[in-house]
Design brief:
With 363 residues, this protein is of the alpha/beta class. It has ten helices and 17 strands.
Length: 363
């Protein structure tokens, strides 16, 4: 398939720059994937729109403050108390590091900018030297393998020095409020560098309403990484090499999925990250003639139209970028023409797009 088949026009003013005042205040476009029919609703309607016997699967990963600003070894750090203009100039001349994927406890795959200035062997210093990194290897498109060393706890250093890695289409710096709002209320573990954004709409009250209706809730962990926001650089969609992402499916969640399938109950995936983890686990289980494989592995699957969907029956998802792997995944689930028609309706009705935007329920 040609990448151009997944394009659509989106006015830039519809790209949400901030979250709504309340998590559950988003609008929700409900789509019937058999007919393609759509209905305008609100996210708060979700518990009442479900049958009441679904298995809802959430991604409980936590977002790291994964964006770091450092300097090359030998360059002085900014002094405490310098003015904002000095700070801004310092950030412009600094080395930006985005943690992408943990390989070992102290070894990370990262995106480094400007990458061309950072050769193998270079040291990058963060803060007042309490954290530093050595470039171990380099890859394409700014990827670098960095080995970190810290005076104390690495996690504490990242928590203090790091910034929330807001996507590039949010045209502002991260703010203190983003540490809470760019995180789901059920985030518990993991090292994600982007939020599983379909889950940002949930509140404890919504989850309680779902449980009271008899809806079963299970969790997986997929550490959202470069595969989520890396652009497709090939004209043929099938030629795109998607980045691997680590995930873990517990025995309990795998059994809940098996039970739901046996009982004919729908499985609702909250977000494309859940779809990717479940469908990757199902693909890995095919050779063993099992439904789904529990465990901690890497998701390598690339889902686009023509790929089978084995596990998921329904999906809650935000609206995605044109010409992206995530839009291809949603199109594989609901049909390319049907999804583009639904997106056209969302644009006409001025839905808010992307991470802090509105959502779709596809069933």
């Amino acid at each position: 398939m040609e990448l151009s088949e997944f394009d659509f026009d989106l006015p830039p003013e519809l790209i949400a720059q901030r979250p709504p005042e309340r998590r559950d205040a988003a609008r929700m476009l409900v789509m019937d994937r058999k007919s393609g029919a759509t209905e305008d609703r609100n996210f708060r309607d979700l518990p009442d729109l479900l049958r009441g016997d679904e298995l809802v699967v959430l991604n409980n990963t936590r977002v790291l403050p994964a964006r770091l600003f450092g300097r090359r070894e030998g360059v002085r750090s900014q002094k405490v108390g310098e003015s904002n203009p000095a700070r801004d100039e310092h950030l412009k001349s600094s080395i930006e590091v985005l943690l992408v994927r943990q390989i070992e406890p102290d070894l990370w795959e990262t995106l480094v900018r400007p990458g061309r200035k950072i050769p193998v062997g270079e040291r990058i210093i963060f803060g007042e030297g309490e954290l530093e990194a050595r470039v171990e290897d380099r890859g394409g498109y700014g990827l670098r393998l960095l080995r970190f060393a810290s005076r104390g706890s690495f996690a504490e250093a990242i928590a203090r020095l790091g910034h929330i890695p807001l996507p590039p289409y949010i045209k502002r710096a991260d703010e203190p409020a983003d540490r809470e709002r760019y995180q789901t209320v059920y985030a518990r573990q993991g090292n994600a560098v982007a939020a599983p954004t379909a889950g940002l709409h949930f509140t404890p009250e919504i989850l309680d309403l779902m449980r009271k209706r008899g809806i079963e809730i299970a969790e997986i962990t997929l550490d959202v990484g470069l595969g989520t926001f890396e652009p497709v650089r090939t004209e043929r969609l099938e030629d795109h090499k998607i980045h691997a992402e680590s995930y873990e499916i517990s025995e309990a969640t795998a059994q809940a999925i098996v039970n739901a399938k046996k009982e004919g109950r729908p499985i609702l995936a909250v977000g494309t990250t859940v779809v990717r983890a479940l469908e990757d686990a199902a693909e890995k289980a095919v050779t063993r003639r099992e439904l789904i494989a529990p465990g901690a592995v890497d998701a390598e699957i690339f889902i686009y139209p023509g790929k089978p969907i084995r596990i998921v029956n329904q999906m809650l998802t935000n609206f995605h970028l044109p010409r992206s792997s995530l839009l291809a995944l949603v199109a594989a689930f609901a049909g390319r023409e049907e999804i583009l028609q639904a997106y056209g309706h969302a644009v006409e009705q001025e839905y808010r797009f992307y991470s802090y935007g509105d959502c779709m329920l596809i069933r």
